[in-house]
Write a structure and sequence with these properties.
Blueprint (H helix, E strand, L loop, with lengths): L2 E3 L18 H10 L10 H10 L1 H9 L6 E2 L1 H20 L7 H26 L5 E10 L5 E9 L4 H21 L15 H4 L4 H10 L1
Antiparallel strand pairs: 1-4, 2-3, 3-4
Length: about 210
Amino acid sequence: MALLLYLGLTAALARGCLHCHRNFSDKFSFYRHHVNLKSWWVGDIPVSGSLLTDWSEDTMKELHLAIPAEITREKLDQVANAVYEKMDQLYQGKMYFPGYFPNELRAIFREQVHLIQNAIIESRIDCQRHCGIFQYQTISCSNCTDSHVICFGYNCESSVQWETAVQGLLHYINNWHKQDNGMSLVSPSFTCLEPPHLANLTLENASECLMQH
């Protein structure tokens, strides 16, 4: 398990992760403008159009993440290409029987949500492969701005590396508090992680100490 330390983020209107991809506007503009050619039943057209129009907003509603929706550009490309491939295949067909087209759109939407969830969580889990403070660049799904995640990884191979990692964590926290004295998420005093206690410090003890603050 990795401890994640996040910088303060400003909330913005939900836009959806896929909306941040460079080809999203062109792709979904095409999908919306050609939706009336995909079903024999006129009732499918407004339903499908609504699904496409609300795609981004509905994505943010369905993510249900306990962590900020921030995705790396590489993983965003992977998700976007997978979605576009599915959508392009769907649009290559001729007119579908009533109900088929909107149901397929819903299936692609649900798969997209799962792909985004997995991509975001996998990046956090990758933090475990590092020792100490680690940072990686991301895109904020809420407003499509560049952002980054700072995390603390426990994958240290020696007591020396572990002590260095903890010292780096304390240094980061102290700098964080100097930059924002109003920040109350983390206590400036970590006596349980100070040098006298580092010699016998275990992962469990460190986790308990951090959770208490």
